UniProtKB/TrEMBL annotation:
The keyword Lipid metabolism does not apply. One of its GO terms (cellular component) is mitochondrial inner membrane. Residues 219-451 form the RCC1-like domain. RCC repeats lie at residues 45-105, 109-176, 177-237, 238-290, 291-345, 346-403, 404-453. Coiled coil: none annotated. One of its GO terms (biological process) is positive regulation of mitochondrial translation. It comes from Drosophila grimshawi. This is GH10494. Keywords: Repeat.
Length: 455
């Protein structure tokens, strides 16, 4: 009896051939639901913001009354900027309490800003009421910054090629090579003559400089980098020009004076092709195409020279010896009292003074030390993950890996690490951002990330 049951079961199991089974199953394909994920926003880029909001730098508020309420003071988690849902944002920069956005729009506007405007660093902005044309010192939502055009200039000419912001000034380079500077010029950081007792509040002055006046007709400006109160211009041929405050030697012009004239700087970079310049305060790092690091400016914490009798202010660019052993460098960043470097193996190095990423007991290192790859997402399941870019503000640092994840560490008084709290972070920690990070703008108390969707 047992044998016959087995035989029946066997016959039932072999009722169809494998080919017939596949044929029957394929008849039900039409019943399978085709899931199409809903994509919010059709633009290629999206923007996430976090940190101190009271200045309006995050551009999240649309209501003045709400913006003044106490609970809106800080945003502790990366929050998607509504403005980026409606506009194609191509670049971002974060100053001291303000943010600028490069955009592509059908109406021809190419530059927007939000945040502090006490020195007209976001242009001349007035209230919408014509009977009350008072200047706006704080802009809570991204607003167009009108760049003065010459006859015949097109919308494409005015697209932003590069931009950067300092403590209270903004520098923009457009596609046709024009440099626009606005905001505070007390130290010549806007590349024009210093006017004694000049009033910057409610100023409609946006300085316009043709790139040929800076680097000649045979070269072009490809990037601009602002420190606290000075500006640096990098050209296609690898030359560096500067203007602004030079008390710590940060202009690299061989002196400690202020300079309203944009001037070519030399020193050890004179015959080098520089491909990257980095500065968030008053210490400057530059990188040549061979991966060697140069520096000038403030070196009070041994950022540029770790020798016993080292100078604390360096006014001429010099090749750094303390970074010679870290391999070929492909990215650099300079904070208020620390520096960062990324080599071609994907290793992140930090040195100087501050929260360097090695834990709460390490606050100073005179030599570059590398942070372990697992801190940036490398593990047994993702052993190809590596860091591809680095950056920092005055008090905090960040690194983006090949998966598009952002890791942050440093001071966190204003929640600008985006980790959900105000505690200082002593090791790199991943920020929760719903997108692949392509660029990060590090302000003094807020952070902006430009991202692409995961799908």
């Amino acid at each position: 009896m047992l044998h016959s049951v087995k035989a029946v079961t066997h016959r039932l199991a072999r009722q169809y051939t494998a080919k017939a089974n596949r044929s029957i199953l394929s008849q039900d394909i039409k019943k399978i639901k085709n899931y199409e994920p809903k994509i919010s926003g059709t633009h290629a880029n999206r923007v996430y913001v976090w940190g101190f909001q009271e200045t309006g730098a995050l551009g999240l508020q649309t209501n003045v009354k709400k913006a003044q309420e106490r609970y809106t003071e800080m945003v502790h988690h990366p929050t998607r900027l509504q403005f980026s849902n409606n506009n194609e944002i191509t670049d971002v920069t974060a100053g001291y309490g303000f943010t600028a956005y490069a955009v592509k729009r059908s109406d021809g506007e190419t530059l927007f800003g939000s945040g502090l405007n006490t020195d007209s660093q976001l242009g001349f902005q007035v209230k919408g009421n014509s009977k009350d044309p008072a200047n706006l010192d704080v802009i809570i939502y991204p607003t167009a910054i009108k760049l003065p055009r010459e006859q015949g200039e097109t919308d494409e000419d005015m697209q932003v090629r590069s931009m950067s912001s300092g403590r209270a000034h903004l520098v923009v380079v457009t596609q046709n090579g024009t440099v626009f500077t606005m905001g505070n010029n007390s130290y010549g950081q806007c590349g024009r003559s210093i006017i004694e007792d000049e009033r910057y509040t409610a100023s409609a002055l946006i300085n316009r400089i043709p790139q040929a006046d800076i680097c000649g007709a045979e070269d072009e400006i490809v990037a601009v980098e602002c420190g606290q109160d000075h500006s640096l211009f990098l050209t296609k041929l690898g030359r560096v020009y500067s203007c602004g405050w030079g008390a710590d030697g940060q202009t690299g012009q061989g002196n400690y004076h202020t300079a309203g004239q944009i001037t070519l700087i030399a020193g050890d970079i004179e015959k080098e092709r520089i491909v990257r310049v980095a500065c968030s305060s008053d210490c400057v790092l530059a990188l040549n195409e061979q991966g060697d690091i140069f520096g000038w400016g403030n070196s009070e914490y041994g950022q540029l020279d770790d020798s016993v009798d080292a100078e604390t202010q360096i006014c001429t660019p010099r090749a750094l010896t303390l970074t010679k052993g870290i391999g070929k460098v492909k990215d650099v960043a300079a904070g208020g009292s620390f520096c960062m470097a990324l080599n071609d193996q994907g290793l992140v190095y930090t040195w100087g003074y501050g929260i360097l990423g090695f834990g709460p007991t390490v606050e100073q290192s005179s030599k570059p030390q590398h942070l372990l790859p697992p801190l940036f997402g490398r593990n047994d399941f993702s052993n190809a993950t590596t860091v591809i870019s680095i950056g920092c503000g005055v008090f905090h640092m960040g690194a983006v890996n090949s998966d598009g994840d952002l890791f942050m560490w440093g001071k966190n008084r204003f929640g600008h690490l985006g980790l959900g709290h105000k505690k200082d972070q002593f090791f790199p920690f991943k920020a929760a951002i719903n997108g692949k990070v392509t660029k990060v703008a590090y302000g003094v108390d807020h952070t902006i990330a430009l991202c692409r969707p995961h799908i």
